[in-house]
Amino acid sequence: MSNILDVRNLATGYGDLRVVWDVSFTVQAGEVLALLGRNGAGKTTVLRAITGLNRLHAGRIEFDGHDLGRTPPYKRIAQGIGIVQENKRLIGDLTVEENLRLGAHVRRWRRSALTSRLDWAYDMFPALADRRGTTAAMLSGGQQQMLAIAQALMPEPRLLLVDEPSAGLAPAIVGDVLSSLARLSETGMAIVLVEQSVDFALALASHVVVIDLGRVVLAAPADDRDELRAQVRDAYLALVEAPAGH
Ligand SMILES: Nc1ncnc2c1ncn2[C@@H]1O[C@H](COP(=O)(O)OP(=O)(O)O)[C@@H](O)[C@H]1O
Ligand SMILES: [Mg+2]
């Protein structure tokens, strides 16, 4: 199968400040790549480069076989890259349905296409269907996370980038988020999942990349989850023993 996402020797950062060096991975349809690492490792920065928010210092990012080059973020979204940012970008004063419509804006759909996509979203996230007229600010943390994911899915992306979806959520709700991502992956969605919670990530992952100080320290398939859990734990232990910081 061909790659939806191919990140090759990525180096990126903020202006001239480089915080990511030589990171490579691929994701195919229906695969979940878990991108793991300590706080400050560079995970969000890698996602920002894929979204077009951070300039590449070196390397190449291909989406669906095409070099993304300097394609601006809004065009990448229109082309099929969905992003759920670390600090969800919902508009609290708007209702669930208004937030979903906003998510679909880049597609400039006619009413019928928009309606059928809304139906799809409510089908995928039944809790949102019951609250379509509720303002986002009134939702629970878990419902807000679901809404943020649903909003990113509105333009029918083929690749979904999700930054720490379990952060700040009660354990019971984390399971709901996990199962919605699992259902999405079964529909053929390619997912890059950034997580601090290793257990959450490994439950879904097809393969895993652990980065630290902006470099890959472990890349492995998830054929054997117990073996992988042990490998990730060893990689983290090695990091804890090493001095942190640049
Ligand atoms: N806006 C910014 N300007 C400069 N440096 C930043 C900025 N945002 C993050 N960094 C630095 O980039 C590194 C990687 O951060 P980040 O990608 O957010 O890590 P993670 O998501 O893995 O916690 C850290 O050293 C962080 O301090
Ligand atoms: Mg981050």
TrEMBL record:
Species of origin: Phytohabitans suffuscus
Keywords, sorted A to Z: Amino-acid transport, ATP-binding, Nucleotide-binding, Transport
Example of a GO MF term: ATP binding
Family note: Belongs to the ABC transporter superfamily.
GO biological-process terms attached to the record: L-amino acid transport
Database matches in CDD domains: ABC_TM1139_LivF_branched
Superkingdom of this protein's organism: Bacteria
Record protein name field: ABC transporter ATP-binding protein
